[in-house]
Design goal:
The complex is a heterotrimer. Chain A is built from ten helices and ten strands. Chain A is an alpha/beta fold. Chain A folds into two domains: 170 residues, Rossmann fold; 78 residues, no CATH class. In chain A, strands 6-7-8-3-9-10 form a six-stranded mixed β-sheet, with helices on both faces. Chain A has a four-stranded antiparallel β-sheet with strand order 2-1-4-5, covered by helices on one side. Chain B is mainly alpha-helical. In chain B, α2 packs across α3. Chain B is globular. Chain C contains 16 helices and two strands. In chain C, α1 packs antiparallel against α8 and α12 crosses α13. Chain C has a single domain, classed as Orthogonal Bundle (ABC transporter involved in vitamin B12 uptake, BtuC), CATH 1.10.3470. By secondary structure, chain C is mainly α. Chains in contact: A-B, A-C, B-C. The complex binds adenosine-5'-triphosphate (ATP) and magnesium ion (MG). Adenosine-5'-triphosphate (ATP) binds next to β2 and α1 of chain A.
Amino acid sequence: MGQIFFQTQNLTMQFGGLVAVHNFSIKIEPHEIIGLIGPNGAGKTTVFNMITGNLIPTSGKIIWLDRDITALQPHYITTLGIARTFQNIRLFGNLSVLDNVMVSYHHRLKSSFWDAMLRTRRYRSEEKHIREEAFRILTMVGLDHFAREPASSLPYGQQRKLEIARALATNPKLLLLDEPAAGMNPQETLELARFVRSLRDSFDLTLIVIEHDMKFVMGLCERIVVLVYGHTIAEGRPEDIQHHPEVIKAYLGEKRHARY
Amino acid sequence: MNFQIFMQQLINGITLGSLYGLVAIGYTMVYGILRLINFAHGDLLMVATYAVIYSMALFMLPWYLSFPLAILFTGLVGILLDRVAYRPLRNAPRISLLISAIGASFLMENLALVIIGGVPKPFPRPSLFDKVVDLYGVKIQVLTIYTPLTTIVLLLGLLYIVRYTEVGKAMRAASRDFETTRLMGINLDRVIALTFLLGSSLAAAGGIMWAMKYPQVNPFMGIIPGLKAFIAAVLGGIGSIVGAVVGGFLLGIGEVLIVAIFPGLAQYRDAFAFMVLIFLLIFRPTGIMGEAIVDKA
Amino acid sequence: MDKGLKKTILNISAIGLLFFALWLFDRYGTEYHVRILNNIAVFIILAVSYNLVNGICGVLHLGPNAFITIGAYTSALLTMSPAEKKISFIIEPLIWPLSVIQVPFWMSLIIAGLVSTVFAFLISYPVFRVRGDYLAIVTLGFGEVVRVLCNALQGVTNGPLGLKGLKPYTNLWWSWAIAVITIVVIQRLINSSWGRAMKAIREDEIAAKAMGIDPFRHLLMAFLINAFFSGVAGGLLAHLITTISPTLFTFFLTFNLLMIIVVGGLGSTTGAVIGATLFAWGSEALRIVESPMQIGSLYIPGIPGMRMVIFSVILMVVIIFARKGIMGQREFSWDWVFAKIKRKHT
Ligand SMILES: Nc1ncnc2c1ncn2[C@@H]1O[C@H](COP(=O)(O)OP(=O)(O)OP(=O)(O)O)[C@@H](O)[C@H]1O
Ligand SMILES: [Mg+2]
């Protein structure tokens, strides 16, 4: 038996009477790109919130690198190598774009508080290193020109990219993207898919991606899980999912108000 | 401690508690909708008592006219408070709203100090409430009986409004989901104004009864009862009207009985409520009847 | 010349200039000027460190008066001589070993800061279990508890009588040296990785957690640092006013601090310094509205409370109409000065 990379076992989340997620189980191998799809309110974001510790599951277990991480504190889970972006963008609006990314290095800072207060050589060189690294990531997502601007001044699409940059900077092994293509035009969406794939290779990442844009998901993901009303109704390769009768039914039923 | 004294103290506690409860309702109602602790709420007690003093002294009104007028006046002050200090900040960061609330509280207190002066004024308690009845050897001032009764009657009236009238339903909808209620085309500003009117009127009733119990009034008299009533609201579970009254009774009775049982602790009496608050926040932040506050990501 | 070196030189000269000016006031200034300057320095210490919690971390802490009180009592009890203490504590004698200890002023200030910090640590758990309005009330309540304790624990605080006849150790040198230290320490913290993390918590706590930042640790750090400086400032105030009592540092003081940092601009140290200066000077200047006046034959009686009315109106107007205050979240910097000068010359 090898190591368990990432696995959830019967994750269930109940809000009062509403079962938002029911027995969600999935096993992921390193380097996979998983798509998580489903109509509005299906429970996709709730799954992310449970994985990252923002919500404590009513029942079930989350295993990460052989360790039970269920209900650990969100910031601690991040330090273990799981990062996320937010569907409803949550940037540090009044901080500069560069600072937004530099914040993500703080949890790995080696200098002590006193190093920082006395501005020791160690602290200064580390701060310089962090700055360069943050810049490198900003260049990758094409935001280096905006480094000094406040994050809130960026246009919507760029804000989504900054969300990704910031999550990448925490040095994750597993990255959770919540609707990264929302608000992008088809051209940008296409580029994003290419970009995400390149990230996987250059950062040695495993990804779970929530997205409503079918073309994006089908083109990018190797495996897709379909959630409807909290239940997993299908799981498999993109081509199988596309022809899965239940999925077609679920999607035709709500086509009129898919997205927004 | 013999039975008589115990009963006497218990009744004192109930009276005090019902006052906390009346004031706590206003905190809870406003918090339910705006998610704001209306810092200036306690000062409405002071507004009401001065309104009574002035209407009785200047216009020679009898108490049964003066009290309702003062209550109405305080309700209007509550609406004005919302209009001036809170409404412009509906979309501002929460910290701004709170700071504005603190500013409003200080403004009311010091405006009263400037206009009326800092010398405590006696409250003209109608002699009707001075009577003392003897209940099986327990001597009770009638005021201490009227106070909790009034509280219960007002509570029932409020519950009726909130549960069975259109505006009441709008208020409840707004406290459950502000945005959706707005989208449904309900005029939220009116709902909020009404909330302030009701909450402030109840605080006024509480203030008047407070002043009859402790007939020395000054511009800062609302601060401590205000803070304690807030704690009562948290104790009962903020957002719940019945909870606020229950919390008020518990706090009032607890405060009085602790001092009665351990007279050595009398000096610490004002710290008792805050200890309750701290333990509450450590062990049960949602209060007795409140719902869990969820961290929405 | 290297830009960093140039700024260091400018900083040092600015501080030198400040102390030269203080020397002038110390020698030639009136008592009135010296009092205002001392007040300015103490309010700078208080406001700059308070701003770390409220402006940088973005939580509404309403209890600095509690830590100022604790610092004031600690420092005062440590500088009084055993003989003085024996005379002062008439209702109940001062408990041992406080009754026999006497330390130099500077040491009493440090201990005052540390004792305040310990108290801050003790209440930090309930305080940071909650946020927003609740946090505000808990910290406010702590201030009330401290007041009640000061009245009740007569064997330590001498109860309502307070402590009288403290030596006026606080002078311009002490107060301004500590003010400068406070500014340097707080600025270094704000401009470090820790400060960045605190600002991230202020902007969006959930996102900050998702980036690996532990809010409790960082809020606690800010809270303790604020408590330390509040305690030190309390010690300075005690030896400036020379009489302390349980009702001296009430929520009024916290209100004033809040007004200072809001008017200066929440989140800006420069703003806190400007706000503290305006306040210390303004509240002296505004004394006239509260004292009786004789203009020709017209006699205007003093109006107590008028200053606070003016202050609360200022606070509300700023928060409603000009939320950013004077500085917003910006800071003074030499770069900004250079840019200004350059523009003038071209
Ligand atoms: N913190 C919460 N408290 C109560 N109910 C919640 C909470 N979070 C989510 N829900 C409910 O759980 C259900 C699933 O929500 P979730 O956000 O996970 O859906 P989703 O699949 O991400 O939808 P979308 O595509 O719209 O983002 C919804 O009915 C939502 O209202
Ligand atoms: Mg979602």
